[in-house]
Specification:
single chain, 3-stranded antiparallel beta sheet, two-stranded antiparallel ribbon, 12 helices, 11 strands, 6% strand
Length: 399
């Protein structure tokens, strides 16, 4: 849906140039100069905010995410054989070192590729599917496409096991379902289905979207709960009332992607409503920024670091809001976009470095605490920039 430039007070061309500069003049040089391991393969992500190395350890979802990022820049923004070489470098590392004897993708290796932690996180497998799918758009490799498909099949088998708990860095307790699983499966299945035109994947995609919107979304609460029982029933607090606004926001743009392919106005409407609800609920009205987690019933959240302000919920919100505006034309999307943009760019940006810092305290001051993993990923920020640039082009707002 294209809009006349005079209909919105945003300076769209400046916004396009800002994101393109951030991506190609900031993020890409940062990672090319600090993060590519040409010696052993893959990327080096255990680093301080400014890129100073902390260790050579490699978390596999970071390796797989890097494949998506550098492939997507090449595919979607600017053809660059060097970036495709970077992606291929991570593909080679994964294939050489990162599967166990059952074909599952491991969690954590040394720099050289010796396994430190095995297949304890289904998210490693999910991001491998995501990365290989995007890589195969640039390099139509039938064996890699088949590997992405077989990995997704194996993911489906594993998550249906009654004793499934492989969700590191946070192990899934018995008798629970985690929103994060159908969430990520929605986006990676949607992407792989577009690549393969497989009707089985289309059916699975509808199932994942239904799990999210008809189970984890609780309309009476106007919130999406992170955990339910294995029967999709609400759990008692505190775990049963955990809400992660950034996850809900990210998930809703995944759903919007699926809704756009389905041309479902009803699903677009529902996802846009959820996006708005979680911005309203998750925004810190005292200091600004999005909380990492909140409690659905207003208690102090039980999750560690709940009041921290992390970069990734804000990057997800920036893209989600522009996508929702593109698909609905509603002004609240732009009002929220301005608020998130101003706060995020004024607090996370490290202009002299070219990348963003990732962790702030509640007041917006930089901290060094490790939250989830001790990594700085080439993923959430560049992905948001890539997808925002694509959205601006679709809306006719590129320079």
């Amino acid at each position: 849906m294209l809009r006349e430039r005079h209909q919105s007070p945003l300076d769209w061309e400046s916004l396009y140039n800002q994101y393109r500069t951030l991506l190609l003049k900031g993020i890409v040089p940062f990672w090319l100069s600090r993060g590519i391991d040409w010696e052993y393969g893959g990327v080096l992500t255990c680093m301080a905010e400014d890129g100073a190395p902390i260790s050579g350890d490699k978390f596999i979802w970071s390796q797989a995410r890097s494949i998506w990022t550098f492939s997507a820049i090449h595919n979607r923004i600017e053809r660059n054989p060097l970036l495709l070489d970077v992606a291929a470098n991570s593909v080679r590392f994964l294939l050489a070192h990162c599967r166990d004897d059952k074909g599952r993708w491991v969690y954590h290796t040394t720099r050289e590729g010796d396994i430190l932690e095995g297949a304890i996180s289904i998210y490693s497998d999910c991001f491998v599917v995501y990365g290989l799918t995007e890589y195969c758009r640039a390099v139509p490799d039938a064996s890699l496409r088949a590997l992405a498909c077989s990995t997704l099949d194996q993911i489906q088998v594993r998550i249906e096991s009654p004793d499934f708990s492989d969700t590191a860095p946070y192990k899934l307790p018995p008798g629970r379902r985690a929103h994060a699983i159908p969430m990520i499966l929605t986006e990676i299945t949607n992407e792989l289905a577009q690549l393969t035109a497989d009707p089985v994947l289309e059916s699975r995609l509808d199932g994942y979207v239904s799990q999210i919107m008809d189970r984890f979304v609780r309309p009476e609460r106007r919130l999406l709960l992170e955990y339910l029982s294995d029967r999709y029933e609400e759990l008692p607090p505190p775990d049963g009332t955990i809400v992660v606004p950034g996850h809900a926001i990210e998930c809703m743009w995944f759903v919007l992607h699926a809704a756009r392919r389905r041309n479902s106005r009803q699903l677009i409407r529902r996802a846009a409503d959820q996006l708005r609800w979680h911005l309203d609920a998750g925004w810190d009205k005292e200091y600004g920024g999005l909380f990492l987690s909140i409690d659905a019933e207003g208690r102090e959240p039980s999750q560690p670091h709940w009041d921290k302000k992390l970069w990734w919920p804000h990057t997800e919100a920036l893209y989600a809001l522009l996508l929702a505006y593109e698909m609905t034309g509603e002004e609240w999307c732009l009002e929220w976009y301005r608020r998130v943009h101003e706060w995020a760019f004024s607090h996370f940006s490290m202009g002299e470095v070219g990348e963003w810092r990732q962790r702030l305290d509640r007041k917006g001051q930089p901290i060094a605490d490790v939250v989830a993993l001790p990594v700085k990923d080439p993923f959430h920020l560049p992905r948001a920039a890539i997808l925002i640039l694509q959205a601006l082009v679709r809306m006719g707002y590129s320079s």
